[in-house]
Every structure is written in C-alpha cells, then in structure tokens.
Amino acid sequence: MSIRGSIEGRRLYAAALAATVVCSTIFAGPELAQADGAPSPSVTVPRLDWSACIPGSQFDCATAKVPLDYSDPHGRTIDLAVIRRKATDPGRRIGTLFFNPGGPGGPGTVQMPQNYESFPQEARERFDIVSWDPRGIGNSTAVNCFRSPKEAAAWTASKPAGFPVGEQQRASWIAAYKDLGQRCQQHDPELLRHVSTPDTAHDLDLLRQAVGDPQLSYLGISYGTFLGATYTNLYPGKVRAMVLDSNIDPQAWTNHASQSEPRLTTFLRMGSDRSAAATLDQFLTLCGSATTARCAFSAGSQKATRDKFDQLMQRLREHPVGTWTYARTVGDVMSSLYVVHPGWTDLAGRLQELSQGRVPEPSAPPSAPPVPNQNPYTGDEQAGAVLCGDSPNPRDPAVYHTLEKAGATRAGDAGRFWTWATEPCASWPAQAAHRYHGPWNNPTAHTVLVVGTTYDPATPYTGAQAMAKELANARLLTNNGYGHTALINSSSCINAYESRYFIDGTLPPPGTTCRQDTPPFSSPKPHGGVATGGGAMASVVS
Questions:
Q1: Alpha carbon of 142 to those of 23, 103, 139, 195: distances in Å?
Q2: Which residues, in sequence order, are CB contacts of 405 under 8 Å at separation 6+?
Q3: Cα separation, 241 vs 223, whole angstroms
Q4: Helix, strand or coil, per DSSP, at residue 477
Q5: In the 8-state DSSP scheme, what is residue 171?
Q6: Which end is more exposed in the chain, N or C (fewer Cβ atoms within 10 Å of the end residue's Cβ)?
Q7: Do the beta carbons of residue 146 and residue 116 sit within 8 Å?
Q8: How many other C-beta atoms are found inside a 10 Å radius of the C-beta of residue 479?
Q9: Which whole-number Å values give the CA distances from 499 to 122, 232, 322, 531, in the listed order?
Q10: β-bridge partners, 62
C-alpha cells in the first residue's frame, strides 16, 4: 500500500487483520552478489530464550540479535522481536511454520496472535507458529524519526489524510514527506540503509537455524510474498514448504531490474489501482443486489448503488462531513475492501452514514494480543524505509500529479489513491546497502504453493499468475473470491489444500480453484467449495 495515504490504509487493514504493501524508490546501491545468499560463514546463529510473553499467555516471546550489516557480521547488531505459539498437538509436531504478515511494516508479534485462529487447524496442531517484527519495524530495532509521540502526531496533522486534492494540498503533502526524510536521515542513517528485503531474508534464515529446522516452512501474505520469493532465490535449497498468498509480481516490484528512471510507480506497475477499482465495482454490484438489511448502502439496484456512490464522492469534494473528506473516504474504502467479513458490511454502514450527512461511528479496535507491547510505534517511516530501498519510483515529486490524472482515467478514485501511495519515496534520503532484483527462477528444493484471489483490492490476481510463472517450481491455487489474502477471508477449501501441502508436500491438482466460505452480503454457509473438476481433496472440502 502506501506511506500515509496507503500506509494509513495499511494500518486500518492491520487492525482489521487484527498487513499489506507500501512504497519505494530506486537507489544505486551495491547488489547482493552471493548466489545462495549466505552472508558470511562467520555469522552467529542467535539464541532464542523463550518465555511467556506475559504471565499466563499461550504465546512465547524472545529476542534475536542479528548483524545490522551482513557484510560486516562482527559490527553493530540489532534486535528482532520474535513470537511463538507452540504446536497444539506436540506429539505429532513437524517443526516450525514461519509467518510474515506483509506491509512492509507489519509487526508479526502483534498480527500473528491476532490472526492465529485464521491459520489452518492442522497447521496449528502440527507446527509451532513463529513470527517476528522485521528489522526496522515495531518491537524490533525500529526506524523512528520523531523524538516523541506528540511530535509524530503533529507531523501527521501537517498533511492531508488519504491523498492530496488540489494544488495547496499537493504542496503540503510533498513538503511533509520531504521533512520526514530529513528527520530520518538525521536520526539513524545506517539503520535506514539496512532494512531491505534481502536483509530480512537473511534474518529469516538465521531464525530458521535458531529453531533447529533443516529447511524452512513459511507462509507469507501480501509483501510477505516478495520476501518469500527473495528467500527462495537466495536460499533455494532450504525451502521445505512455502505458501505465498496475495502475490506481488517481482518484476513489477523491481521494475524489471531496470536502471532507468521508472515511468510508473510501484503500485501502478503492479496494477493495484485497476484491481482495487474492479473490487470496488464488485462491492457496489453485490451491495446493489442485496437488501438494505444486508448492505446498508444499497440503493435497490446495481446501477442506482453505483450512482449513489459517485454522487457521495462528488459531494464530499465540496462538503466534507466533519473530518471525512473525499480523500479520507476513498482511503477508507480502499483499505476496507481488504476484509470481506465484517469489513464490507461495516464499510457499507459508514458510506450510508456519510450519505445522510452523519459522521460514522469509529470502528471497534481489534482485540489486544497477549504481548507486552500491544501497540508498538509503526509510523510511516518504517514501511517507507523498506519499500523506498527496494522498489523504483519516480524521484520527481512533480510527476505524481500527472500520474494521478492518468490513474484516475483508468481506475477512478482508486487510481488517485494508489498513485500517491508511493510519492513519499520521491524524497526518501537513504540508499539500500543491498537489494535483490533477480533472478527469480533458481530451482528450489520443493515446489512453492502460490495462492491468488480473483478480486483482490491491493495485489491483483495477475500478480499470483506472474509469481507462479517467475519461480522455477511453483503451483498456482486460485481463490475465486474477494478481499486481500485468503488467510483472513476464509476458505475451507484453501485451508485444506494448504494443510496437506504443509504437512506432507501434497500439491493441489493443476488448475484448482476454490471458493470462499461466505460470499459478501449473504447468509453464512458452513463450508467452502472446490471447482477442480474432481481433485484428490474434493470430497474433503466440498
């Protein structure tokens, strides 16, 4: 997603997730050269001294010390906050399943316990589930460019919510992110240069060694898919089982490894704007086909509901409802499309309130995870530090208004939102010391399972198709449904295939398609369906 417009959206998603994508820029830094990714034979494997996160918690916490710079393994070290939930059937335990919740910027120590029940039951029984706050993020050694929460809040208030509308807001937005970059450069410039995706992939391999697993079992969602793809190509012989859910096309993320100034932003290359627009269209279509008892924003027909939405957006441009401006509302819509239940129903309620000129009630926060720091600082600079070192974006802030107009032509409101999502990288100050931009087809020890949802508002289904094609050994599993990630938009069918794969390596038949358990704005159904033409597991999950 983005820095504030979409970093803000990312946060709403993280709360609803109870993770996703953000931004970046091209810098000419030294590239990682070692084909198998081994940073140095002298890197010390961290020791994980597990203890209950808080008294009585079923989750254990530990801290791992890793090198800041893997090319200097005896230099400065940083801390990684790590969390574990032990296998619930220890007598049949297989090993550890690592989880990255996306972002970049998703704190695993918060989001894994909040989403633990969404993991397939058999995976929870047979694996310790382990996650961590990646370097630069949350409870780990974190990028934080403000001296106090008050100072951070004042900076946030200095710019428009969602994305800028009009010349004055564009100027304040650009100035705010230029100021943020300057603050970060003054605070800890070395940390900014060492929070890239390959740095985190090396951390992940050290954590694998720390838990004693000879090969990695991994579930990555959203940005976590790009991390997973990077790991598979740095450590291809260490892949035991890997599920990549809601995929980023690695060629789009890296701008095809081009050294030229990019013409488009990361998310426009990925097609996030068009995918979000298509998902929004489905939201309005299904809402308009439902009664107001199921979708509060329904106007009685598909066309009338679309017209109602367009009229609301136009009215908010001229007459905000309290602090609900046009841009803030669009940002809320984009992020609220991530989680179908209850996200779509709640979004319909907020839109209906706004259409009546009323300020919507704030959403209930997710339940607090049983960890010491339940709400770590996750400011825009954390996601930006990762993304702005990995993915090329235009460096001229003046380009973004032109790109916005083109984005709006092809994707409406979603085009505006996703264009500005990466503008903060135009003025990002740091150079990533190490980047990885391919190759993506190093043969892995085992086949990777790639999961893609047909109507995903952030990472389009084409990203999953591209990922499956780019990796040397991959199988595509299609989730015919809505929302961002199959993990949090439940499909018993997807869960069953993932469970078999994690446990014994069994892959779904080629061309397998699953459905979500409960479509939007409908009564609950007990099980998901399979549309494989009769796969090996059809009787289990039909």
A1: 17, 15, 7, 10
A2: none
A3: 18
A4: strand
A5: H
A6: C
A7: no
A8: 27
A9: 6, 20, 47, 18
A10: 82
Q: State the Cα–Cα distance between residues 15 and 110, nearest whole angstrom.
A: 10
Residue whose structure tokens are 């603050």:
183
Backbone angles phi, psi at 478, to 5 degrees: -95, 130
To which residue do tokens 């929870």 refer? 124
Average pLDDT of the residues in 220-225: 98
Residue type, 96: T
Query: Helix or strand or coil: residue 64?
Result: strand
DSSP per position, 221-273: ETHHHHHHHHHHHHSGGGEEEEEEES---HHHHTGGG--SPPSS-HHHHHTHH
Residue 150, classified by CB atoms within 10 Å of its CB into exposed (0-12), middle (13-18) or buried (19+), is exposed
- Residue 142 near residue 376, CB atoms below 8 Å: yes
pLDDT computed for residue 490 by the predictor:
94
Beta-ladder partners of 244: 220, 450
| Cα–Cα dist 1/46, whole Å | 32
* pLDDT of 38 above 80: no
Residue with tokens 């893609």: 452
Strand arrangement, sheet containing 77-85:
51-52, 59-67, 77-85, 127-132, 95-100, 216-221, 239-245, 448-455, 474-482, 513-515
Cα 521 versus chain centre, distance = 25
User: Which range is least confidently modeled, 263-267, 371-375, 405-409?
Assistant: 371-375
Dihedral (Cα; 94, 98, 101, 107), 10-degree rounding: 130
Q: Is the pTM of the predicted complex or chain greater than 0.70?
A: yes
Of residues 393, 263, 417, the one with CA closest to residue 336: 417
